[in-house]
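A reminder before we start the practical. When you read a complex entry, don't treat the lines as separate problems. The point of joint prediction is that each chain is placed relative to the others, so the output describes one connected object in space. Small molecules and nucleic acid strands, if listed, are placed in the same frame. In the example below there are two entries. Take a minute to note the order of the lines before looking further.
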Amino acid sequence: MTQITRGTWAEAGTSLDFKTGNWRSTQRPVHIHAKAPCHGACPAGEDQQAWFAELQMGHPESAWRSLVAANPLPGVTGRVCPHPCETACNRVQLDGALAIHNVERWLGDEAVLQGWDYPVTPPAKDAPVVAIVGAGPGGLSAAYHCVRLGLRAEIFEALPEAGGLLRSAIPPTRLPRTALDAELNRLLDLPGITLNLRQRLGRDISVEGLRERFAAVLLSPGCESPKPWSVKGAVPADLHEGLALLRDFMDHGALPDAAKGDVIVHGGGNTAMDICRIMKRAGAKSVTLITASGLPGPDTAPDDLINVVPRELEEAQEEGIEIIDHATVSRLIMKGSRVTGVEIIALRKERGKDGRKRRVEFEGTERVISVDMVVPCVGEQVAPEAFEGLLNGAYFWPDNLYGRIAPRTFSIGDARGNRGTVAAAIGDGRIAAEAVAAELAGEEDPVADARPEMAFDGLNTAYYAGAVRVPVAKLPVAERTFDAEIEGGIGRAEALAEAQRCLSCGNCLACDNCWTMCPDNAVIKTTELAMDGSHYVFDYDYCKGCGLCTEECPTGFIQSVPETS
Amino acid sequence: MTKSDTSTRLNELRMKHGRPPASPSEPKAERTETLREAQPRFRGLESGHRACQGCGEALAARLVMESAGPDVMVANATGCLEVFTTPWPQSAWRVPWIHSLFENSAAVASGMEAAMKAKGKNTKILSFGGDGATYDIGFQSLSGMLERHHNVLYVTYDNEAYMNTGIQRSSSTPHAATTTTSPAGKERMGKRHLKKDLLSIIAAHHIPYAAAASVAYPQDLQRKVRYAMGVEGPTFLVIHSPCPLGWRHDSALTIEVARRAVQCGLFPLVELERGALTNIMPIREPRPVADYLELQGRFAHLFNKDDYRAQEELDHLQALADHNIDIYGLRGDGVDPVDTTGMSHVKRGGPLMGER
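Here is the predicted structure of the whole assembly.
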């Protein structure tokens, strides 16, 4: 037993000998990097939270590097993507989602302006060469990621220019050609990428031939053939399918005569929206979109929502496009073989006996509209020539995440069957390139990111200051032409200010809360980065497991897990 | 323990904790600084103390020491803080520290200050006590210290009852709180009397600076400590420090409980200089007191739907909060970056407002 003698004293700080960490009985705090919902929702696989963190520290170039680690075309996606990241953004529940696409676009443009170098090293001269069919967003992304992973890429494109549907089907009002060319050319100039133009599959090359000559083949042919469309067997003689109409218009700027009258567009995607707006601008008397989906609203189910870029929908309505939602064309009224009217009927997606939703038309809701032209825009499918034995119906429908349809053969983008956005094609390109690199190295397929997502209720919102979303200028309806970009850009100051709105969901904000508020001094701040990328480590020798840091962590980066031993 | 044993042990401890050698003959620590030693703040109160999980008082004392140290000495009244920081033969303090009785820490501090003055040193004296030692038992010596104008910062860690001895009511216990000596039951709805308005009594001593702070707002708390440290003469700080054990709330909720106390108006953060109100932390949107009370077991009887007295007491506490908001003019005028909402905000790299 210790004798307490007169005149002795306790040495300073000696309580450190007593490890209060063994008091923890039920829980201990740990750092868990959860996915921010924007990252989880991004079809291209961008980690928006990560690049916003760089911007918050005032490093736009690092932010761009972090961004292009997943998506080499931010200037493009910042303009054309329907940004599911913004829909998923937790800030929606505070004061509006972050303007992610505007900042992404600024970063892409700034990289072009400043000439920031893509973070790639030239592949070895004898590196395996991967053949890529199609120079659309998916093919370009695949080529870029092949080079990033030390492979060489040779692209075969049927058309005289690269870009795929970015060039052929997206109007310059959404994606100015200068912006597209600037980013594309920088990408194509990267060492290790060869582009062969005017090489059509089935005419100049074949899948079998490519498989013999190259280490692997990535197919990103896109969808070129319209899905067959008829109304109960009837097809007008002068049928103009939406995507073809759009391509013709982009090529030589003309529309059929009937497009001067009353036009009905049947469909519910971005092509339908683009064709509506172009026809209206070209002088159609009226343009009405008939869509089976619903318009955005508080009660609209996510699987019922019309699949277009939200601001495109808003702009179309401003321009006078009428939209009839939850409806379909049920009958064509013909005069000879020309269409003079359509009968439309209300419908909804309803759950059937087997629990699956299907469309149900409601008898008694039919009405007739007189029209001069009907444009179907119900989607496209893969042109089947040259893909003998590889297609599963109209598309490739790969049965795995990576798009593998045969050994060393992968499908990318729209042709997979369930994609439909530029961002998804870009994501496919990356995933396929990673799988190819692994397969060629004799390794297992890369594992998918299984991190949990940080939901809004995992945040402590007491620590976030209110800040409204950056306002973005938009061309007034009267000034909109076929060429001028409608949505304006933001500047450096606005981009950096917008970045400060990022909640950093699931990832350390370095706010010092845990370090400041631990009653037991058990959170240690590091000047260097800790192992997990944060600036803090837990000293479990002293942590009593009170849970205070977990509660007061704004981002949910600190979580309490059951104490094991 | 022989003398050589003692010095060996001292040397061992010095090696371990990285203290500089006391004399040239003493061996230097033969290792680089540990992460803990390299913390960019003064570690006046170290880990290994025996405070309960989520202790608001331990947190408050640590924050005070960070801002006040290192050139300070502490006189500490009996109470939780004294007990959990100094279990013999260990101490969590890294400054000279003296344990006084319950009733005389201000008197001991007065003596320490006089001694320092006599030695020509500028070392600031801090005097610490809980609400029991301050509002009740040590009140007389505190008043004397203030009246004699000693250059001492007196900090009271207000956890609103005698927690160390088993949650007995003090004069700081709020109205209607249940404690072991003011139990809620058939006769009474917890404590019958009101919380003593100590700050007004202190301010009536006409001292240079008296303020209230809360662990929910560390930046504000530390600013007040720094301000008081710069004042020549007696200064006083009362810090609202939730006690998970005595208030019966989850240990993880210490900060949240403290924050709601401020946001509802029951614990106003005010500053008084020479008896006059000179600053307040405005409340952006006053929360109902029920938001604050519902987190705590000591007020659980106020939420008993079957007891007709419960609503009356809730209304009484709401009226007390509204009264505070009224007399101190706490209601904010729009958005203020240092109000009860803005003061919490952070950005990447640290607090949005306040200094670090």
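Discuss with your neighbour: Chain A has a mean pLDDT of 90. What might explain this?
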